[in-house]
């Protein structure tokens, strides 16, 4: 039987198993992942799972009977290399598994903090359920947590820990939160909300060293200040897991490089999700994104390609983040924006939309507690609308009337 071998059992993999059968794949599907669990939803890890509101079973993307029904063989193991000439992968114990089509859906790993003391007990990362289990185990004794990094993971973690009554300090090198991903208006809003919720937010600061004996007791900043803590969580971004692709000679460009069908420089190998840098015709270049919708989109394109159909990656990127009572939904990519238009009042309310334009064209929107404006934005961006900025700000204008 022809075999699709999927390495990395995360979000892209779970989608791929179902999509392959939907597209008519009748051969074998073998899924190899190094985590003990079947694929689960990662987004709740920094939200409800950290807050103790659900268990891992509830986060499974598909229950185990789904894999039985679709004849997917799951195996917990780690792949250490790909032997392209023999169309085999090598497992940690030395065993080899053959493939006809190989899909690398390896995800990403947390970027490590490298200052002195980073190896101490009490220093945590947040990518896998095991990471969160380790944090939760320490929470009963933790009064003060420090979070390094005010990106989405850092801020979601801050919100979850505040809901548990933990004192939280967030340290960020940049002058505003979410600097890499949002406009100043949105950063200011999230900075204000976190402070209102009791987070001690320190911007423009740098960690010099972690202090303690065997266990962390505090964080020394480069300005000499010591912030005491009994728990530290690092959220300073991720590094894509490209090594086994790289070592086997696949083209790498920020991630494992693919064409618009998810195919790498080897026609028998595909790459999906956080580890993949995939050509996206909408943007005319390769993109490496870190989101569930991106992993799902890649998996659908690859399933079709393996079944001999052409369904290129075209969907408009989108993303979400939940913090406190705030549901942020992001449509499009704001890279290269030259104008920002805010609809609503970002300085005193908890719902508004920030539109991003380039050369007058709407390219992205951050919608905070505004699901309808998110729906509008997705369609308007896809239609490449160039709306009158004045119109976008006027509360009496029904935005849907702008759509074609
Ligand atoms: P993953 O889901 O990371 O799966 C990759 C799997 O491959 C892992 O299990 C890994 O252990 C395994 N693996 C790696 N190397 C090997 C190997 N050599 N052999 C065997 N197995 C291997 N996205 C959103 O859209 N919205 C959100 O709100 C959001 N919140 C998030 C919150 C957190 C805390 C995290 C960590 C992520 C969040 N994301 C969010 C991102 C989203 O979860 C990822 O983009 C998505 O999981 C990517 O799917 P993937 O299949 O590429 O990789």
Please give a handful of descriptors for the protein shown.
404 residues; alpha/beta; five-stranded parallel sheet; 27 strands; globular; binds flavin-adenine dinucleotide
Walkthrough of the structure:
The protein is an alpha/beta fold. Helix content is 24%, strand content 31%. The chain has a 5-stranded parallel beta sheet with strand order 3-2-1-7-20. Helix 1 packs parallel to helix 8. The relative contact order is 0.12.
How would you summarize what this structure contains?
The protein is built from ten helices and 27 strands. With 404 residues, the chain is α/β, with parallel strands linked by helices. The strands form seven sheets. Strands 3-2-1-7-20 form a five-stranded parallel beta sheet. It has a five-stranded parallel beta sheet with strand order 9-16-10-11-12, with helices on one face.
């Amino acid at each position: 039987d022809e075999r699709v071998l999927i390495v990395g059992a995360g979000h892209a993999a779970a989608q791929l198993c179902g999509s392959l059968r939907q597209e008519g794949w009748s051969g074998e599907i073998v899924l190899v992942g190094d985590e003990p669990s079947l694929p689960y939803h990662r987004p709740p890890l920094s939200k409800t799972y950290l807050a103790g509101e659900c268990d891992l079973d509830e986060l499974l993307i598909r229950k185990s009977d789904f894999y039985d029904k679709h004849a997917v063989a799951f195996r917990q193991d780690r792949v250490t290399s790909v032997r392209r000439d023999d169309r085999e992968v090598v497992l940690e114990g030395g065993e080899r598994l053959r493939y006809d089509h190989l899909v690398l859906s390896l995800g990403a790993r947390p970027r490590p903090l490298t200052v002195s003391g980073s190896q101490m007990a009490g220093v945590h990362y947040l990518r896998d359920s095991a990471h969160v289990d380790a944090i939760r185990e320490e929470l009963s004794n933790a009064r003060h947590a420090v979070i390094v990094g005010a990106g989405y993971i850092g801020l979601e973690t801050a919100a979850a820990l505040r809901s548990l009554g933990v004192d939280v300090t967030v340290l960020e090198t940049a002058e505003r939160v979410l600097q890499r991903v949002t406009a100043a208006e949105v950063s200011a809003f999230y900075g204000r909300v976190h402070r209102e919720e009791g987070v001690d937010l320190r911007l423009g600061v740098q960690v010099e060293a972690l202090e303690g004996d065997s266990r962390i007791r505090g964080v020394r900043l480069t300005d000499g200040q010591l912030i005491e803590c009994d728990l530290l969580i690092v959220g300073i971004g991720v590094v894509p897991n490209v090594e086994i692709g790289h070592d086997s000679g696949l083209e790498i460009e920020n991630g494992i490089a693919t064409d618009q069908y998810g195919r790498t420089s080897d026609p028998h190998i595909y790459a999906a999700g956080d580890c993949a840098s995939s050509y996206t015709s909408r943007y005319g270049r390769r993109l490496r994104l870190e989101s569930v919708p991106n992993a799902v989109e890649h998996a659908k394109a690859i399933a079709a390609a393996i079944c001999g159909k052409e369904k290129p990656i075209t969907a408009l990127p989108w993303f979400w983040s939940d913090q406190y009572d705030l549901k942020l939904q992001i449509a499009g990519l704001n890279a290269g924006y030259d104008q920002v238009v805010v609809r609503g009042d970002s300085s005193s309310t908890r719902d508004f939309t920030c539109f991003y334009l380039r050369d007058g064209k709407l390219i992205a929107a951050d919608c905070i507690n505004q699901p309808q404006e998110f729906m509008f934005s997705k369609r308007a961006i896809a239609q490449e609308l160039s709306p009158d900025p004045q119109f976008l700000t006027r509360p009496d204008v029904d935005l849907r009337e702008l759509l074609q």
